[in-house]
Amino acid sequence: MAELASTRSPVTAEIRVTGDPRTLPGQHGTARRERVIVQGSVELVETVSGTRYRTDSPVVVFANGPGWSALLPSQRVRVRGRLGPAEPGTLTAAVLLASKAPEVLSGPSTPQRVAGMFRSGLREAAGILPPAERGLLPGLVVGDLSLMDEQVRRDLATAGLSHVTAVSGANLAIVAGAVVVMGRLAGLPLAARAALAIAGMIGFAVVARPSPSVLRALVMGSVAAVALGTGRSRDGLAALAATVLTLILFDPGLAREYGFALSVLATGGILVFAPRWRDRLARRMPTIAAEALAVPCAAQAAVTPLLVLMSGQLEAVAVPANLLAGPAVAPATLLGFAASLVAPVSVDIARWLVWPAGYAVGWIIWVARQAAGLPAATLSWPGGAVGLLLLVLSAVALWLLLRRPTLRLAACAIAGGLIIAVLVVRPVVASWPPDGWLLVSCDVGQGDALVLAAGRGRAIVVDTGPEPALVDRCLRELGVEQVPLLVLTHPHFDHVGGLDGVFRARQVGAVLVSPGERSRGEAGRVSAALRQRRTPEWVATPGMAWHLGPLALTVLGPSEEAIMAGPGEGSVTNNASIVLHARWRTGSALLCGDVETEAQEALLKHGLPQADILKIPHHGSARQDPRFLAAVRASAALVSVGEDNDYGHPAPLTLTRLRTLGIRVYRTDTQGDLAVTADQDHLSIVPRHH
User: Fold this and answer.
1) How many angstroms separate the CA atoms of 630 and 619, rounded?
2) With contact defined as beta carbons under 8 Å apart, do 555 and 592 qualify?
3) Is 413 exposed, middle or buried (0-12, 13-18, 19+ CB in 10 A)?
4) Phi and psi for 270 in degrees, rounded to 5?
5) What is the DSSP string of 368-387?
6) Helix/strand/coil for 49
7) Quick check: helix, strand or coil at residue 71?
8) How confident is the model at residue 233 (pLDDT cuts 50, 70, 90)?
9) Were 683 and a residue from 386, 480, 587, 653 both cysteine, which residue would form a disulfide, CB within 3.0 to 4.6 Å?
10) What pLDDT score does 70 carry?
11) 124 falls in which pLDDT band (50, 70, 90)?
12) pTM (2 d.p.)
């Protein structure tokens, strides 16, 4: 396999699927294309010459096309593709690039089929919840991340809460604890309660699928339950050590997984530190509160050294976020697990169980969102061995400092002052966004997303970029809570793919769209989403105007002759882009969507207003009319473009023309978000990264 991969040979392979397919966000560009990653094991490979090899080699399949996301672990498929070398240092033999649907050779095993039935039932029952809760509940209960919102995923990671979507010992402990309580209420003896706990954990493992994290948690929990049932004193560290050794002997690849190491360290920290810290804290607070504080602190303290090695950062908000979100995990897990068991029989009853679980999940999402939005939610720290050594020295110094009561009080006072400085003073003097911003070109990669201030907490948004998380991040940092008008200049994915991000926790008054067919492609998806949200959808016509806050906005195009102009379908859609003229007391800007030379010529015929700032059409592509660029008489240009994009944007020819006209160019790929501000009697542009 390694030799075939080194020559990037085209092959036909028979693969046994070993993990759940993972769908990646849609590709940047004009159209949405599904990309799926599937882990599997190659059992038979055939080259183009007809030579066949039997093997058992782990591979990662990068696939496009239908049929991949519906696969279940244990299924066997035949696929044609091209092999490539795997990432160095991994236990993967090769990667396989496939562009066609797989040929299914066999169905899933009985446990996997049963698990698939329960998981699909939970997804169906969760359909009554809002999108964010709908995606997180299956992830929290059974590790099903297929519907997970990308922004929720990022907020959880920033807040130190990403572990809630990793099915592990915590989930099994919740289920086992509930079963033991029911057994106690039923008057069952200790041994029977232990056996019932093991049965409950096995049932949960089937629903969650026997992934490595689930198996190691099941082994650990079973050892603990046996110790409980025999009445012997349970040695948690011994059980943990036995579990680690057994699992590594069974699957040596776990030794290289950060997830496995984090799980072991978190469990060890809880076993070693939590009891002592709980007892000390219990002298000053109720025992329940002491335990609630000691457990997340112990787990975070144990995993922090590894996190420093991995990412070079400290999660400053992880402990308080876990304290706030922790109480909601158990009810969401139990109600979701019960709903997954009931759904195959009655989806209506399952929805009644999902409904209260949605409130618990919504609380977790709210905590993650607020924590991730705090200043210094994550702190930069040197990575690698240097960072680890510095962390150890800091911990020792802190321990020596806190041993003396007087120094302890002084340290607490200093810490309180730093917290106030971070949460209160820093936001007041924050460098972003700049005071009095009028327009911001958000850095959303290869796409467009513009935000025009329309009053306190309000803004008009022009295009959404390709990913919801990126535009939501930009709007959140700008403090935008209401969007009275969302303008989608044309239905290409790099301009409308982030639609859900604008709607996240915001009120959207209406959406302005370009003329054209609304029943298929991205236009059809947008219209369907707006109907579902009951948001008005207006078609743009020249002359429409709005006055909101400091902004006066007028629609200049598209004109009738520009709508069907262009050498191909993509250019026709681009030329139908909505063109806007934004005016403030101190200046104006021309926002052109992706119009190309044909539409630019039409704008010139109808009379083009001058503007101080020009948003360069189509990310600075070469299809620009020099007369159009000159007629605007702009002093500065904004280019929204992705770093190292595949399109060659912005084109060198376009940059040369702009420099010849004396227009200063600002780019999101090199300077990040770009803010337009009022500077006395003229407009200025402030890049986020100089």
Assistant:
1) 18
2) no
3) exposed
4) -65, -40
5) HHHHHTSTTSEEE---HHHH
6) coil
7) coil
8) very low
9) 587
10) 84
11) very high
12) 0.72
Quick one: which of 36, 143, 157 has its CA closest to 97?
36
Q: What is the DSSP string of 542-576?
A: TT-EEEETTEEEEEEE--HHHHT-SSSHHHHHHHT
Least confident of 190-204, 291-305, 458-472, 581-595: 291-305
* Phi (first) and psi of residue 169, to 5 degrees: -60, -30
User: Residue 261 has which token pair?
Assistant: 């190491």
Environment class of residue 58 by beta-carbon count within 10 Å: exposed (0-12), middle (13-18) or buried (19+)?
Answer: middle
Q: What tokens were used for 626?
A: 């020099």
Partners of 104 in beta bridges = 77
Rounded Cα gap, residues 475 and 437, in angstroms = 13
Strand 76-85 to 94-98 pairing: antiparallel
Gap between the Cα atoms of 610 and 27, Å rounded = 35
CA–CA distance from 165 to each of 98, 145, 365, 368, 558 (Å)?
29, 8, 12, 13, 46
- Would strands 682-687 and 674-679 be described as parallel, antiparallel, or unpaired? antiparallel
Rg (the chain; Cα; Å):
28
CA 503 centroid distance within chain? 16
Q: How many CB atoms lie within 10 A of CB 320?
A: 16
- CA–CA separation, 37 and 68 (whole Å): 9
Question: Which regions of 304-462 does DSSP assign to beta strands (E)?
Answer: 313-315, 378-380, 437-441, 450-453, 459-462
Distance (Å, rounded) from C-alpha 74 to C-alpha 470?
36
Spatial separation of the C-alpha atoms in residues 523 and 413, rounded to whole Å: 57
Distances (CA, A) of 393 to 276, 305, 376, 389, 396: 22, 12, 22, 6, 5
Cα–Cα dist 138/133, whole Å: 9
Q: For residue 543, what pLDDT band results from cuts at 50, 70 and 90?
A: very high
Instruction: For residues 642 and 669, give the distance between their C-alpha atoms in angstroms, rounded to a whole number.
Output: 5
Q: What pLDDT, in 10s, does the model give residues 482-540?
A: 999 999 999 999 999 999 999 988 999 999 999 987 777 889 999 999 999 999 999 99
- Cα separation, 575 vs 566, whole angstroms: 7
Is the distance from CB of 622 to CB of 653 less than 8 angstroms? Answer: yes
Q: Which residues pair with 482 in a beta bridge?
A: 458, 507
Q: What is the mean pLDDT of the chain?
A: 84
CA distance 654 to 629: 10
Largest CA distance in the chain: 90
State the Cα–Cα distance between residues 337 and 137, nearest whole angstrom.
10
